[in-house]
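Dear all,

This email documents one entry for the complex benchmark we are building for the journal club exercise. For each entry we list the sequence lines for every component of the assembly. Then comes the predicted three-dimensional structure of the complex as a C-alpha cell string, followed by one or two observations. Please use this as the template for your own entries, and keep the labels exactly as they appear.
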Amino acid sequence: MTSTTPLLDIRDLTVSFKTDDGLVRAVNGVDLQMFPGETLAVVGESGSGKSVSAMAVMGLLPSYTQIEGSVEFEGTDLLKLSTRAMRKLQGNEIAMIFQDPMTALNPVFTVGNQIIEGIRIHHPQISKQAARERTIELLALVGIPEPRQRVDNYPHEFSGGMRQRAMIALAIANEPKLLIADEPTTALDVTIQAQVLEVMRTAQEATGAAMMLITHDLGLVAGVADRVQVMYGGRVFEMSDTDTIFYRSRNPYTRGLMTSVPTAAARTDDRLSPIPGAPPSAINPPRGCVFRPRCQHAEDACYEEPPLLALDATGRHLSRCHFAEELPELGAQDELGRSA
Amino acid sequence: MFAYVVRRVLTTIPLLLIGTFLVFTLTAISGDPLARLAQLDVDQAAYDRLIDLYNLDQPIPQRYVSWLTSAVQGDMGPSPSQGGQQTFDLVLGRALNTARLAIPAFFIIAITAVTLGVYSAVKQYSKLDYFVTGFSFLGISLPTFVFGLLLQVIFGIWWFDWFGARPFFVQGMRTVAQHGWLDMVRAHVLPIITLWLVITASESRFQRAAMLEVINSDYIRTARAKGLPRRTVILKHGLRNALIPLVTIWAIDFALLLGGAVVTETIFAWPGLGRLLLAGIFQQDLNLTMGVVVFIAALVVVFNLIADLLYGVLDPRIRYD
C-alpha cells in the first residue's frame, strides 16, 4: 500500500506561540511522513502538539505563530507558499475534519450550500446544479438518509453524528489526496463513533486519500491505522506500524498510554494504571527527556534529551528513549505496568 | 408566524397600559397645571377650562381612565400649552421633523458602526483597533450636550473667526421646500454628527464583540479550511452571523432616534418630538406629555417586533410557532 515517495513530508517542524507567560513551544522538531493512500494515526495526550501540527499542514495557524522547519506536500514546501497558493490546496488537495461537528458547520447556511460552496470555490466551472447533484451523491455516500431532502436542511436539523457525516462529505467533496481528521469521533456518542469511523473508511476508499487520524484513543487506532506515530510534549516519541506499536512497543510513554486505556475484555481484577502526573509545560519543559518526571524507568541518563532511535535497519520503528532497546518485552508489561 | 405577530401585539397591550398609567400618575403628581395660570392674570373661566379639560376635580385614577377612554378612540385631546392644537396632529408633525434627523442618522450610524466594528475585530489589537476602541470610549463618555455645544462653538464661532464663513447652521431646521437643498443639508449636518458620535460609539463596540466571537468560532475555521478567500470568510460566513445580535440594538436605537433626541434637539433648536416632550413636561401639559409618551412607546413596541421577526430571517434556528 505504501510507496517510497512520501505524499507529505514534515521535517523538523517547530511551532511556537508568543504568550504573556513566555514562548509556548507547542511542537518541537517533529518529523512525519505520509504515503499516498495510507492511514497514519497520530496519538497523544492533550497538548502533545498533534492538532497544532495538523493545523500547520492546513495553513490554519494564526499569523502570529512562529513556524520553523518544512512541510512538503508532493514536493512543495507548504510553509513557503503564499496564502493565495495555499488556498488552492485547502479543501481541495488537503482537507480536514474537525473535532466538534456541533460547531463546525455555519448555522445560517444549509448543509448543502456549505458543501456546494466548497466544491465551486475550487471548480468554478461546475454549475450550481451539478454541484448540488454531486453534494447529494456525497451525502448518500456518507450515509445521510434521504439526501435529496436533507441537502436543504440547516445544520441544527442534523444530529451530531449526521453533522460529522456532513463534515466528512465536505472534506472529500474535491477528492483530496490528504485527509486530516482531528479527533473526529471524540465529541460523538460511543454508538455513533464506530459508524462515523466506518464512514471515514468508506470516504477514504472512495477518494483514495491518505488519512491522518489524530486521536488520543488507542482503541480507535487499532482498527483503522496502518502506522502509528505517538507524540508527547510536542515531540515524536515512537513511530511504527500498528502491530509493532501494540505488541512490540519500545517506548515507556506508548506503553503507559496502553495500560491506561480501559477495555471491556479486561479481567475484573485488573486495575487501570494511568500515567502519573500531568503533561509537561510547553513554556518550561523539564530538562532532558520531557517524559522523565512521569517515567518509571527514568535514570540519570534521562536528564539528557534522548534521540529518536531507529530500532531496525529500515527505520520503520523509531523510539525516543535512552533505554528503548533495554525495556522488558511487552508480555511482561502487565506485571510491570500494573503493579507500579 | 402570523399567530406569533398577533400574540406579540396582544402582549404589548398590558405593557402599554401599565406604562401609560405610570407616566400619567408621575406627570400628574409632579406639578400643578394651574400654577402657570397664576402668573398670567386670567379670570376664573380660564381656570375652569383647564380643570374641566383635565378633570382636575377628580382623583388621579379616574382622570387616567377618562384620558384612556378618549385616547383609545383616537382622541388625544387638545394641548393647552401649544395654543390648544390637537395633540395628535402636533405629535405627528413633530415626529416628521424628528424623522428628518433620525432616518439618515440611523443608516449612517448602522453602516459606520458595522464597518468600524468588523474592521477592529478582524484586525484585533492593531493600531486601527486601538483607534476605534479609543473613539468608542470618547463617544460613550462624552455627554451629548458637551459634544453638541463643542460642534456649535467650532463651526459657529471659531470657524467663522478663521475663515469668515459658517459651513453649517448651528440652530434650527431648514427644509428643501423653503430654503433649498444646500441649506437643508447645512442644517442637518451638525445634529446628525452629534447623534452619530454617541450611538456609533456604542454600536461599534457591540459589533466588534459580536464579530470577535464569530471569527474565533469553529465554523469560521471550517470556512477557511475549505480554501475560501478571506473576504468571503469574513463577510459571508462571519458578518452574516455577527449581525444577528446587532438587530436588537438597531431596533432599540432606531426607536429611540425616532422618539426624539431630547438633548440634541434642544441644543440645535430642532422642532422635533424631543423638544415637544420637554415642553409638555415643563409646562405641565398632560395631554401633550402623554401623547409623546404613547407615540414613543408604540415605536419601541413596533421596532422590537420588527427586530424579533428579522431574527427569524437572519437565523434559521429561530422558528415562530
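Observations: Residues 123 and 197 of chain A are 28 Å apart (CA to CA). Confidence is low (pLDDT under 50) at residues 332-340 of chain A.
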